[in-house]
Amino acid sequence: AQSVTQPDIHITVSEGASLELRCNYSYGATPYLFWYVQSPGQGLQLLLKYFSGDTLVQGIKGFEAEFKRSQSSFNLRKPSVHWSDAAEYFCALRDDKIIFGKGTRLHILP
Amino acid sequence: SQTIHQWPATLVQPVGSPLSLECTVEGTSNPNLYWYRQAAGRGLQLLFYSIGIDQISSEVPQNLSASRPQDRQFILSSKKLLLSDSGFYLCAWERGQGNEQYFGPGTRLTVT
Q1: Helix locations, chain A, DSSP H
Q2: How far is the alpha carbon of B31 from chain A, nearest alpha carbon, in Å?
Q3: Which of A31, A41, A59, B63 is the most buried (most CB within 10 A)?
Q4: What confidence tens digit (pLDDT) does each residue in A11-52 have?
Q5: Can you tell me the distance from the alpha carbon of A52 to that of B95, in angstroms, rounded to the nearest whole number?
Q6: Number of residue pairs across A and B with CB atoms under 8 Å?
Q7: Is A102–B43 a contact, with Cβ atoms under 8 angstroms apart?
Q8: Residue B60 pLDDT more than 90?
Q9: CB of A44 less than 8 A from some CB of B
Q10: Cβ proximity of A105 and A10 under 8 Å
């Protein structure tokens, strides 16, 4: 069955440090993949998407993600986090509907 | 550009009372529309989706219903709220299936 796994429920990094959020998926074909961000009490905002082509995808707010078919992964990265990046991040896969992971909450240390 | 609105932003309702949450999309036509619920500490649960007026599918049997009275309006309702209906309700739209979804700001519902 199609699924999205985000292994880390919480991650804490220091401001200015690099970030990588993990996402693994299970899907029978080439998936459409997304990363969303949700600040407390707000809706989800699309950070980036992968449909096909270049496996390194650039998004908004300085984020990027790399699609690795061999590892069934679509990890989100940022070279230097800012305090405003503290939020919950959702990886998602498109089937007939969108399947969301359970999210990773990012905490930033000053 | 397209925008999506949800109303109200917050709501506190007693058990057994009715519910009506509204979602409207501007700047597009014939969107697919979705209702999700997000309980505390949990992921998103798809409740309903609609690919057109009078075409609404329910994902989870529950105390809620949905309607789409106009092309860009999606309503989530209940006749009698339960405590378990508390949560953060999100509406989303997409331009045809297979694309990304765009979310509204959400409604925080507390059932007391």
Answers
A1: none
A2: 14
A3: A31
A4: 999 999 999 999 999 998 888 999 999 999 999 999 999 998
A5: 18
A6: 39
A7: yes
A8: no
A9: yes
A10: yes
For chain B, say whether A27 makes contact (Cβ under 8 Å). no
Determine contact, residues A23/A93, Cβ cutoff 8 Å: no
- Which residue reads 């961000």 in tokens? A37
Residue A26 near chain B (CB below 8 Å): no
Query: Please, which pLDDT band fits residue B61 given cuts at 50, 70 and 90?
Result: low
Tell me the residue type at B92: A
**Tokens read off for A109:** 């240390």
B82-112: pLDDT as tens digits: 999 999 999 999 997 778 999 999 999 999 9
Q: Residue A39 gets which letter from DSSP?
A: -
Residues of B in contact with A44 (CB under 8 A): 44, 90, 92, 103
The C-alpha atoms of residue B15 and residue A35 are separated, in whole angstroms, by 36
Report how far residue B107's alpha carbon sits from residue B37's, in angstroms, rounded to the nearest whole number.
10
Position of tokens 């440090």?
Answer: A17
Please state the φ and ψ torsions of residue A63, each to the nearest 5 degrees: -85, 150
CA-nearest residue to A94 within chain B is B98
Chain A residues near residue B6 by CB distance under 8 angstroms: 43
Beta bridge partner(s), residue B35: B48, B91
**Average pLDDT of chain B to the nearest whole number:** 93
Q: What is the pLDDT of residue B97?
A: 73
At A80, the pLDDT band (50, 70, 90 cuts) reads very high
